[in-house]
Design brief:
Length: about 80
């Protein structure tokens, strides 16, 4: 791995950055999978995290729908003023 890193670093910094980012992504995915596996064995914490993420997503959708309704109302008002 050291030789690979030195080889990439010698070629250019951008390639080194891409290699490091890909390696970090892979490590994080392995970490997430491990945490999910362990947390589900100890009380299903991953289910709570997934539920929290769904609630956050639903909250954003609700907020976006409210904003869209306001935009639609403003557009209707502008049309009536013309």
């Amino acid at each position: 791995m050291r030789d690979t890193v030195e080889s990439i670093a010698g070629k250019n910094a951008k390639a080194m950055m891409n290699y490091t980012q890909n390696l970090a992504r892979q490590n994080m995915e392995v970490f997430r999978q491990s945490m999910k596996m362990f947390s589900s064995a100890y009380g299903g914490q991953s289910n709570r995290e997934e539920s929290d993420q769904r609630d956050e997503h639903t909250g954003r959708e609700t907020e976006l729908e409210a904003i869209q309704k306001q935009i639609d109302a403003l557009q209707d008002r502008l049309k009536s003023l013309k």
